[in-house]
Protein: Glutathione S-transferase
Amino acid sequence: MALLPIKLYTAPTPNGFKISIFLEVLGLKYDSQIFDISKGETKQNWFVELNPNGRIPVIVDPNVKGEGKGEGEGEGKGEGEGEGEGKGEGDNGGLVLSQTGAILQYLADTYDKEHKYSYPFGSIEYYKTLEYLIFQVSENGPIQGQANHFVVFAKEKVPYGINRYLTDTKRIYDVYEDILSRNKNNGSKYLVGDRYTIADFALLGWAFRLPRLNIDIHSWPLLGKWFDELTQIPAVQRGLIVPPH
Amino acid sequence: MALLPIKLYTAPTPNGFKISIFLEVLGLKYDSQIFDISKGETKQNWFVELNPNGRIPVIVDPNVKGEGKGEGEGEGKGEGEGEGEGKGEGDNGGLVLSQTGAILQYLADTYDKEHKYSYPFGSIEYYKTLEYLIFQVSENGPIQGQANHFVVFAKEKVPYGINRYLTDTKRIYDVYEDILSRNKNNGSKYLVGDRYTIADFALLGWAFRLPRLNIDIHSWPLLGKWFDELTQIPAVQRGLIVPPH
Structure:
């Protein structure tokens, strides 16, 4: 039973990279549509129907049975009457999912049945993977994202913000180095156990953008090695390009 | 087979509330140890062994088979030699887990077999719940947390930060109101489907702290009602006290 391609709405951003990397690693077929965030393309009504948060990435997996449009038939923001038009390409049934943490977990659960990049549901390692995945999406991503804002994007120079978020970004990579250091004592170079998981791929999306903050991941010896090895994997390299195929 | 009580390391904070609420809702036995974050108690070596990120909440579930100490025998931060002492109460085996998103998902998967507050693994609703749970831990929590910092805790008044995070906090509650509005069209008052889930309980932990920002959740009609109904549930009320029993 051949799988239909997954639709990926994305952009060349750290959060976008996470998903294209993992789709490539899993060898899944997908069609990507790349948005220009600066033009507000993720705030179009048809896209907000797919993701009420109006942000990439979003996947639509047509291989899922069930209505699966989720809230696709709801209204847009605010009072939202009569916005049912402009349905968008994703509105063809299937599972609609946003939030990188949820997308990565869904893809691993569904398409990595041999557990090459995951652990069996219910195992200790399954939840340790989820723990570090959520550390990524709830601390590394948000804090490094705020650092990017204050260092790169803010039209006003706000030293308090620059210092606050650069300091915390570095602290978070200290924590990751600590995790790798503990695992190294067990002979592992991965965040969890004996294989790369979505915890690693999620972090990689953001680690890839550290140069923007003038931070070199090789300042952390184990993270530097981890980064170099991961980015030599051809599938990972393809995912970091986010090819519009 | 009687369950052993789960150990909960926590504090009366939004992230702490999430876990004590859900433990109470599930009717699970637990022993809580309440930390004074302002005194740096979460940065003690024995606690950092449990959670390399040095933050509450953390659970230790002794009912899980396997070594389960996770990295409990690793070193502390930095070079970390010879810090194996001070093992801490959690170091008695069992699953050690941090990050509220991971803890809530673990508790639902493990202790809500009847799916009173969750959906079966692999279902569309399971992943929609995860999507909104991760929206909470990756946007609502971090952004409202930054708003708290700039409005309440920062020693310096930084208008840029105050405005940025108050604005985004409100935008995020707009999104939640939109989600409830779409679901209302399907006859639901919940974030996902026909029951409260960890997506609701996670948001409640932070919604409870909106008064600190002088924001009234009743400014959003559906969220206001959602909040009033949830906070009338006795188990939820107990969880919001975080009783040290």
